[in-house]
Design a protein that fits this description.
heterodimer, A: alpha/beta, Rossmann fold, 4 domains, ten-stranded mixed beta sheet, 31 strands, about 20% strand, B: mainly alpha, 2 helices
């Protein structure tokens, strides 16, 4: 090689060396620069990530380039590893615990996969376990390295409301969330235990369309978008009703009540409100808050979708978000937003660091089919005929206390018993129903249901039946069935024309009210509840008075109606605080003329019961009753306003084996010493023997006590005997005015027999004058019986009457003018059968004294009583009686008269004031001017001997007289 | 305790973990912020030092080209690109190497006699 070439080689090599060295240097410079840059960038990125958190940084669009840059993967991975480590512990153990918890708290349809329950109607009823949680989806922890999904469930019934917040593109997912949840609830419980309400601000139809088959059975109610206030008011009324009628014994919530009694009677109400993210109007918002606050305790559940509202009650929130970030799909077919990305959510149950993926929507056909199945099951359940026994409590009798009122179920709605309440808020009841509508059955069911729950010292019943028929008679001992209802204190049947009996009951109730008010005042309290609290040993039962066909009581325009109306108003108004409750039943409430000027008389009758075809019992526009089927009734505790309607099916309480069996059982358990109820049977005459026993006149009274004559029975609650005392004072005579003999003979006979019993044998003298031919038979019978009682009887006929009267008149005159020794040795009772028939005889004048028999009679009447001679006479007309009571005698010589078939106006001066009276069978007007204020109605007694009565009734000898050697043997 | 309460207690554990993590992250971020200041200075220094090398190297290259100006037979090349993957070695050393190689080049070129013999 030449030197030139060598040189060139050397230069080339050296140049190359420089080149290489510069490459290396520049490369190194760049590397150094890069290294410093990277260190800086990594540290900065890590600092950002640690400051803001990986999840937040990921969702920040400004950081997208950072995450996309592979150079920065290292610090990102480091931060992610740290986060995973932090959650790692939790993720290792807690999801399993959550799974177990949810499995336990959300059994069956509440938490299981849809295939296990969708399409099957639920079986759990009110007493069954109520799930504490309801599944909505599953979640994973954000940024957890090992993803372990766990189920997410929310509390609902009785626990918490639910709020769902969505975005415009996730609205569908929100609706399917709500739909799934409602399906779970409705498929868990027996159909009818849950009622759904849907209100959608934007549309009348469209919200949750798949559930619409439920509307057929009334399980789902779709509310008009413009009527939110009505829905809220309905919910508020429900709350009020539950508080005043169901939660009465101090239970704070339906859940507590169910725990105490074992059965839930109020279905849950779930109200779904679908909004559009604008706030509600102020008044709606307030109403909603009130419902939210008080609803959970009363079984009302709110599900709010896009309704911004602050709720001061437990509420869980699910907030839907769209995320385009990756997240592993968990579960099949998650909901997809309208933009196509997966829909995730945050939930207050899982907190802000977990992402919730909602369960996907269920197939439309299956949902619709399930709803149909549920509705059919409900209808099957509804048409199940509920029996009287279903009204009775299952395991206890007489366990309830009537301190706060009387509550008893009377029928069923959707298989659940519906209670009737007589309490402070609904003290009295008005029942309307034409004949044949089941009014009697309703009353019997009600009485049976009450009687089985409250013991006799907590509840007393007073029952009156104005119409024909003996529906309440079954509560008293009878020939075939000796049992009686222990709670019944008074039963009146066949009252028909004896309106006075209704009046007597009202008087009794008013008196009882006064007595209780005075006792309350003495204890310094005002109400029965308080009285019972301060006087626990006293006996203060609640009184329920039932009057069937009560309009008869007010049928006439007379003093009875006037007084009865006043008393009714009084008891209606003041009875509430004294524990006295009226239940008035009628065919036609509006036809009571006496009430037309007093619209307020029924304002205390808050409880209204309308039977099919009844009118005017409920409020005017409330015509549910017109279309009711048989065996149903409308129960309304809100004075008849429509929203208070409860349509119930009333079981049959009239058929054998229901109420009669119950009554026998209760009768056998009755407390010792409880007296039988008093029976007032308008169709039967009271027995004289019973009247005498009641008045204590079964044996001769010693000494000089005044004897009384029993004429019959007064119409009062106690069934007292009508007595007239016969002391030796002027005016003590009795006149009976009747055109027929039978009734007059009954009264005279009763008087005579009662007097005979009160004297020791042979200590009184009886003279019986048979003056009218038709009186022969009764007079003879009476004579026999008086003689059998041990008293001497003299019988005089028409021929000897004149002589008798003259003799008696002379005797009376002698005694009156004579001295001390002129006292009559024993009382002398003169019974005159048909005085006016002897007028011919009486008008004859004695040739010697020029006195007529009439004058003598007048003298006997005027002067006889004070000498111990008492006249008990029967005149056949008032005019004839008045004809006697002039000149020598006066009206006041007949101290007591009994008038049968006279017109009130004919009595004239015999009565202190004009009296309106028309003849009534087996009834008379009695007036004793010395003891009574005004004439009263008398019931003619049955004076036949026991043997005869017993034989008529088919009783055996033994039954008639079970105690033949008894000490108090009476005549007869 | 109700099931809902129990559920929230369990998921609350998550939040506690987050809280713990947040706390430690905050501390670390603070430390990183301090370090960042240092790193920023280091980055500026590195940048400056690299620039010095680049400038120096550029000058050297120009001088080399200048020296080779008369060597018409040489194919000249532009300034070398930085070698990718070159390790971040001590620039002082590399600069010195460049200088040495340049001197070698100059020496190789300078051997040429003025008006050299043919």
């Amino acid at each position: 090689m030449s030197r030139r070439e060598q040189r060139r080689d050397r230069i080339q090599a050296a140049f190359e060396g420089v080149h290489v060295a510069i490459e290396a240097a520049l490369g190194a410079a760049e590397a150094i620069r890069d290294r410093a840059l990277r260190a800086h960038a990594h540290t900065m990125v890590e600092m950002w990530l640690r400051e803001s958190g990986l999840a937040q940084a990921r969702s920040d669009p400004r950081m997208r380039r950072v995450f996309a840059n592979p150079d920065l993967a290292e610090p990102i991975a480091r931060v992610a590893r740290d986060e995973a480590a932090a959650f790692g512990e939790w993720v290792a153990t807690e999801p399993v615990r959550i799974e177990r918890l949810v499995a336990e708290a959300a059994p069956g349809a509440a938490g299981g996969p849809a295939d296990e329950w969708l399409g099957e109607p639920g079986k759990v009823d009110g007493g069954g376990p109520v799930p504490q949680l309801w599944r909505i989806g599953s979640a994973t922890v954000d940024s957890a390295a090992a993803e372990r999904a766990f189920p997410v469930a929310v509390p609902l019934l009785d626990e918490s409301h639910l709020q769902v917040i969505s975005t415009p593109h996730t609205r569908n997912a929100a609706e399917s969330l709500v739909e799934n949840l409602l399906l779970r609830v409705v498929s868990y419980f027996r159909p009818g235990m849950v009622a759904l309400h849907v209100w959608d601000v934007g549309q009348l139809t469209g919200a949750l369309p798949a559930l619409y088959p439920l509307t057929r059975g009334g399980l789902l109610t779709v509310h008009d978008p413009s009527r939110l206030s009505e829905l809220l008011e309905e919910l508020a009324n429900h709350i009020r009703r539950v508080h005043t009628r169901v939660l009465v014994d101090g239970h704070p919530s339906l859940r507590a009540l169910t725990a105490a009694t074992g059965g839930r009677t109020e279905p849950w109400q779930i109200a779904v409100l679908v909004g559009n993210r604008t706030g509600l109007r102020e008044e709606h918002h307030r109403a909603l808050q009130r419902v939210a606050r008080n609803g959970l305790a009363c079984g009302i559940q709110l599900v709010l979708v896009d309704v911004p509202a602050t709720v001061s009650a437990p509420v869980e929130t699910v907030t839907l978000i769209e995320s385009s970030a990756s997240g592993t799909r968990i579960g099949s077919e998650p909901p997809v937003s309208a933009l196509g990305g997966p829909v995730t959510a945050r939930c207050t149950m899982t907190g802000p660091h977990a992402t919730l993926e909602l369960d996907g929507p269920l197939p439309l056909e299956r949902v619709t089919a399930a709803c149909h199945t549920i509705t059919e099951e409900l209808e099957t359940w509804r048409s199940r005929v509920a029996t009287f026994d279903d009204l009775l409590p299952t395991d206890w009798y007489w366990g309830a206390s009537s301190t706060s009122g009387v509550h008893a179920p009377v029928g069923f709605r959707d298989g659940l018993p519906v209670e009737l309440a007589l309490c402070d808020s609904s003290p009295h009841a008005l029942i309307g129903g034409p004949s044949g509508s089941g009014k009697t059955n309703f009353l019997l069911a009600m009485l049976g249901s009450m009687a089985v729950r409250y013991p006799p010292h907590e509840l007393e019943l007073y029952l009156l039946d104005f119409k024909e028929g003996v529906s309440f008679a079954q509560f008293t001992p009878g020939r075939r069935d000796p049992s009686w209802l222990p709670h019944a204190r008074l039963v009146g049947v066949n009252i028909n024309t004896d309106r006075e009996f209704g009046l007597a009951l009202l008087r009794f109730l008013a008196e009882e009210m006064r007595r209780r008010a005075e006792a309350a005042k003495a204890h310094e309290v005002t109400k029965l509840e308080e009285l019972r609290a301060v006087d626990p040993d006293g006996r203060w039962p609640r009184i329920v008075a039932v009057i069937d066909e009560f309009q008869f009581l007010f049928a006439e325009r007379d003093a009875v109606t006037r007084e009865a109306t006043g008393l009714l108003e009084d008891v209606a108004r003041r009875g509430r605080s004294q524990g006295i409750h009226l239940v008035l039943a009628s065919q036609d409430v509006s036809g009571i003329e006496a009430f037309w000027g007093r619209p307020a008389i029924f304002e205390q009758f808050v409880l209204r019961v309308a039977l099919p075809r009844s009118r005017r019992v409920l409020a005017d526009l409330n015509d549910v009753a017109l279309a009711l089927p048989r065996w149903h009734a409308v129960l309304n505790h809100e004075s008849g306003i429509t929203h208070g309607n409860e349509v119930v099916r009333v079981p049959d309480a009239t058929v054998r084996g229901t109420l009669d069996v119950l009554q026998t059982e209760l009768w056998q358990r009755r407390p010792e010493g409880l007296a039988e109820p008093r029976l007032f049977d308008g169709g039967r005459a009271p027995l004289l023997t019973d009247l005498l026993a009641g008045a204590g006149l079964v044996s001769p009274n010693a000494g000089d006590a005044t004897r009384v004559a029993v004429l019959g029975q007064l119409i009062d609650v106690a069934g007292s005997a009508a007595t007239v005392p016969l002391p030796a004072t002027p005016g003590r005579n009795v006149a009976v005015v009747s055109s027929g003999v039978a009734e007059a003979a009954a009264v005279l006979g009763a008087a005579a027999l009662s007097l005979a019993v009160q004297h020791r044998p042979e200590a009184a003298r009886f003279t019986v004058c048979v003056l009218a031919p038709e009186a022969g038979g009764p007079a003879d019978a009476l004579v026999e019986r008086v003689r059998a009682a041990g008293q001497p009887v003299e019988v005089v006929t028409l021929d000897g009457f004149g002589t008798l009267v003259a003799g008696l008149a002379a005797d009376v005159a002698g005694r009156l003018t004579g001295g001390v020794g002129a006292a009559r040795p024993m009382p002398h009772y003169l019974l005159l059968y048909g005085v006016d028939a002897a007028s011919g005889v009486l008008e004859q004048k004695d040739p010697d004294t020029f006195r007529s028999g009439l004058d003598s009679l007048r003298q006997v009447l005027r002067g006889g009583p004070e000498t111990g001679l008492h006249v008990l006479g029967w005149w056949r007309s008032v005019q004839r009686l008045r004809a006697v009571l002039m000149m020598g005698a006066g009206v006041d010589d007949i101290g007591c008269w009994v008038a049968f078939d006279v017109q009130g106006s004919e009595l004239g001066t015999l009565s202190p004031a004009p009296v309106s009276w028309s003849p009534r069978p087996a009834r008379a007007l009695v007036f004793d001017r010395f003891t009574q204020q005004r004439p009263e109605v008398l019931i003619v007694p049955d004076i036949r001997p026991e043997r005869e009565i017993g034989a008529e009734r088919g009783l055996s000898e033994r039954e008639i007289n079970p105690d033949p050697a008894g000490a108090n043997e009476e005549s007869g | 305790m109700t099931a809902a309460r129990q559920y929230k207690d369990i998921t609350g554990g998550m939040s506690e973990a987050v809280a713990r993590m947040r706390r430690s992250d905050t501390e670390r971020a603070a430390r990183l912020a301090e370090r960042l200041v240092e790193l920023e200075a280091a980055m500026v220094a590195a940048h400056q030092r690299a620039a010095i090398t680049e400038i120096g190297v550029g000058l050297q290259w120009d001088a080399a080209l200048e020296a080779l100006w008369n060597e018409h037979w040489m194919t000249l090349r532009p300034l070398p690109r930085p070698r990718p993957g070159a390790p971040a070695r001590d620039l002082d050393y590399l600069d010195a190497v460049v200088g040495q190689r340049f001197e070698a080049l100059r020496e190789a070129v300078g051997r040429r006699r003025p008006f050299g013999r043919r």
